[in-house]
Design goal:
There is one protein chain. This protein is α/β, with parallel strands linked by helices and about 375 residues long. It has 2 domains: about 70 residues, no CATH class; about 290 residues, Rossmann fold, CATH 3.40.50. The strands form 2 sheets. The chain has a 9-stranded mixed sheet. Strands 1-2 form a two-stranded antiparallel ribbon. The termini are far apart.
């Protein structure tokens, strides 16, 4: 009987352990807030209530809220790419129209319906893996440009939303990859074999063409790399002469173009690289050298037009990274242009008038005056 009672007591303790931990953590938080010195306290209105928090606690709380909201967005975006087993090409236009983003922004839904834009997700081969990509195009468009979007983030974090306002402007065709890892099998190596996913996506264009009602450009394509995607873009171009022959112009947007300098501004990312992306103390030098765009431009043809766009108020990727790459490419005789949006942060405004003019080789007039080179 004592044994049974002892077992029950242990089970009860185990079941109550999470509750006990929660109570302890809450006590610590409340205690910390209660004992803050008045000199450090700021009154921050959140959700129509006022809490007494130090600046550090407030910033930490905002990061927590941002992370939680980002996680919700990532789950929603991942659901857009869901495909049944055995399916390798699927129209998701209705899925896009009914998604949280379109419901929140009715003008986007109206734009999609008025142009007849259609959305598809598909699987394409890369090495021995099957990678999910998306296609967005207007069937009746006359000579649309094929714009390849190379995502930022990593794994399931910050996936591209096919129906986002930035990717439905005009009659352009947008094609994007999710890269290995995350919602795909394989491991994200952050500039390792995942670079092949960019090259193999472009190679998949003829197959995509055979599956749709419309025309895809197979030559003179445009690459736009976003944040980490800009790093992937430069690495892909440097590794593949074939890809260089297909690309008419390349655009880096708030890109990680100097990996070593980026680590200096955000040293905490080193632990993430070690934890998730195969970096260790024995291979650090070769790992960085193979992935740093600044050290992987020697094979890129010098007449390929490259545009570097940075945000002057970007706290994630310092604009100095883009400036460093611009200066190096310029010194080597490359056809490179630098724009800095002084009032923008870590963001992409889509193919706006300024970018469209650059893609059309019309860099002149008032658009040019709004850009810093």
């Amino acid at each position: 009987m004592k044994t049974i009672t002892s077992i029950k007591s242990r089970i009860s303790s185990v079941l109550n352990f999470p509750l006990m931990i929660g109570i302890v953590l809450m006590t610590l938080v409340l205690s910390t807030i209660a004992h803050c010195s008045q000199g450090d306290i700021q009154h921050i209105p959140i959700a129509e209530q006022t809490y007494n928090l130090t600046r550090e606690q407030h910033e930490g709380f905002l990061r927590y809220l941002e992370t939680r909201e980002q996680a919700k967005q990532d789950v929603r975006k991942a659901s857009l790419y869901a495909m049944d087993k055995g399916v390798d090409f699927l129209e998701i236009t209705n899925r896009i129209l009914a998604c949280h983003y379109c419901l929140k922004h009715p003008k986007i839904k109206q734009e999609i319906l008025s142009t007849g834009r259609r959305f598809f997700i598909f699987k394409y081969p890369s090495d021995d893996l099957s990678i999910i990509g998306f296609l967005s195009y207007v069937p009746k468009a006359q000579s649309p440009k094929s714009i390849f979007l190379i995502r930022g983030g990593n794994r399931s974090f910050s996936l591209l939303h096919p129906g986002r306002e930035d990717y439905i402007k005009g009659d352009h065709t947008y094609i994007g990859t999710t890269l290995r890892g995350g919602i795909n099998f394989g491991r994200d190596e952050f500039g390792g074999k995942d670079v092949n996913d960019v090259i193999n996506l472009v190679k998949f264009i003829p197959t995509l063409q055979s599956k749709i009602e419309g025309t895809l450009q197979t030559n003179d394509i445009y690459l736009i790399g976003l944040s980490r995607g800009a790093m992937e873009m430069i690495l892909a171009l440097n590794r593949s002469k074939w890809l260089q022959g297909k690309v008419r112009k390349a655009v880096s947007v708030v890109g990680m173009l100097d990996l070593e300098e980026w680590i200096k501004t955000r040293p905490s990312v080193l632990s993430k690289f070690k934890r998730n992306f195969l970096l260790n103390r024995y291979n650090k030098e070769t790992w960085l050298k193979a992935r740093n765009p600044m050290k992987n431009i020697d094979k890129i043809r010098k007449d390929l037009p490259i545009l570097i766009i940075q945000g002057g108020k970007d706290i994630r990727v310092n604009p100095a990274l883009g400036k460093n790459m611009f200066k190096k490419l310029k010194s080597l005789g490359h056809n490179v242009t630098y724009w800095e949006n002084k009032d923008k942060g870590h963001e992409f405004q889509g193919v706006d008038a300024a970018l469209e003019e650059w893609l059309e080789l019309k860099i002149s007039g008032p658009v040019a005056k709004n850009k810093m080179r």
